[in-house]
Amino acid sequence: MNPLSISISGLARLVRVASKYRLDRLSTLGLRLPFWLTVLLLPLRLKPAPNPNVGTDLKLALIELGPAFIKLGQLLSTRRDVLPDSVSDELASLQDQVPGIDSTLALNTIKAGLGDYFESHFQTINPIPLAAASIAQVHEGTLLDGTQIVIKFRRPGIKALILKDLTLLESLAALLNKALPDASRLHLFQIVRDYRHVILAELDFAQEAANAIKLRALWMPRGKLSVPKIHTTFTRDNLIVMDRVHGIVISDREQLVQANVNLERLANLGVEIFFTQVFIDNFFHADMHPGNVLVNATDPANPTYIALDCAIIGALTRDDRNYLGRNLIAFFNEDYRDIAEAHIDSGWVPDHIDADAFEAVIKAVCAPLFGKTMSEIEFGKLLIALFSAARDFEMEIQPQLVLLQKTLLNIEGIGRHLYGDLDLWATAAPFMQRWRAQKTSLPDLLAELKDLAPDLVQALPNLPRNLLLAPGRIDLITASQKRQSQKLTSVQRALEQQSQRQTRQFGILLLSLAAIGLLINPSLGGDVTSGLSVTSIIIGGVGLQQILKGKG
Question: Cβ(544)–Cβ(511) under 8 Å?
């Protein structure tokens, strides 16, 4: 990512908000800063922090920065392998509830999206929103045939704003990767890259509709999870129409108790649904926070779930699913060696890693848990601890595993809220044992061979010829690789020179901006902790650092 792609106004906004909320305190979380940045941040220590907990101030800063940053904070709240619990807990409380847009604008947006269908199919649309968030707004309505529906539409202009902030975040992450010694450990750019995938999914209502249709088709025969019917005729990229559904919000435990809902059954059913989605369907709802889950309490003794907002869906590759299952089963059996080998065999951890050392770390994380009862163990946090330990062994957390981790945390949190003695393992362990038995059964093996059959049939006729020609082809490939390596070295050298020039130019630009800021508000003679002065000093320091780096 080219640092020059960072807009000066965007960078200034980030620095101003960071100064306002004293986010320099994030350095106390184990992030090692370069000396030049430590010196530049010293004036901020003269300014009192708005709140004792840096997590609270980080949350307030993200709210002020807007919807893209709020959503990022929500995602970061699940990364307890990166942030301490005190910060993660604050970020987990981030809400993107905002005032609804003007009713006239809302109705005009809906009418424009529906086109001619509005007059021919819709009877009423309530101008008062049912719900309003930073990305979308929801209104109730009625079709001409009496069907109760809800209309969810994307806020006008929000997509362009979020795309702009995404570019800023990616550029900033790339810049921090160069500037901070510990940035690679925190995987800043990867976190932002994963976030792009999540936020773009939330912006695409046509994809959300397709996800909802598939999830509904998978679970309708099972009768344990329902999804509102999508009216595809009216659905667009920025607008989705679905049946209005009614249920008890999953977080309203008091109402569930009043309705005599069997909470133990409901909690265990949530676990069963999660593992079925991951290991059987390979299609799991990855945004199961309490706001997206309702309970159908028509039959209190046998309650079922209603899933809303299917924008974010997770899926694992066959190999990832198999190795994840292997990890879980090994954990149930206290087989720490197999956990270590599964990580290496899957490619999650490089094969040059010392398996004995890795096993010892895994045992240190997992073994103490077996002295506790099942109800005392939080399975989601265990997974986080394993991933965190694996990071020290060069494990790269893939986006699909992050979504899985986030979903498991949500499901387990909901389950324990409903039924404090939830024994997730008691439900999960038998499920995983049955799954393993199915994976080694003859029908499953035949199914895998069937999947591979087209490739095998295509390859067999050429196999003898390929074997005869293999030695010569290997020599050609080796010579070609040598030539390509020489070319890449030359290209890399040219790119490095270009990058140095761009870095110097970027530094000069930042220094110029800082000088303008100091001329407007002379810092040393006035308030050093003022927002403009601090912003100018920090931007100037970053500019100087970039110039020096460009010369290197």
Answer: yes
> For the residues 403-414, what does the mean pLDDT come to?
79
Phi-psi label, residue 309: left if phi above 0, alpha if psi -120 to 50, beta otherwise: left
Cβ–Cβ < 8 Å for 356, 393: no
Tens-digit pLDDT profile for residues 513-532: 666 565 555 444 445 445 55
Q: Where residue 499 falls among pLDDT bands split at 50, 70, 90?
A: low
Give domain limits for the chain: 3-96+159-201, 249-439, 464-551
pLDDT classification of 3: cutoffs 50, 70, 90: very low
Show the tokens assigned to 193.
Answer: 């890259």
- What's the angle, vertex CA 99, arms to CA 98 and CA 105, rounded to 5? 120
Report the pLDDT value the prediction gives residue 461, as an integer from 0 to 100.
66
Marked catalytic residue, from 24, 81, 287, 423: 287
Crossing angle (nearest 10°) for helices 8-20 and 158-179: 80
What is the Cα–Cα distance from 101 to 96, expressed in whole angstroms?
14
d(CA 129, CA 282): 34
Known catalytic membership, residue 287 = yes
pTM of this structure: 0.73
> Which strand (E) or helix (H) includes residue 240?
strand 239-243
Detail the DSSP E strand segments found in 54-164.
122-125, 131-132, 136-143, 148-154
DSSP string, 501-512: HHHHHHHHHHHH
Residue 305, classed as helix, strand or coil, is strand
How far, in whole angstroms, is CA 64 from its chain's centroid? 21
Are 73 and 83 in contact by the 8 Å Cβ rule? The answer is no
d(CA 23, CA 68): 18
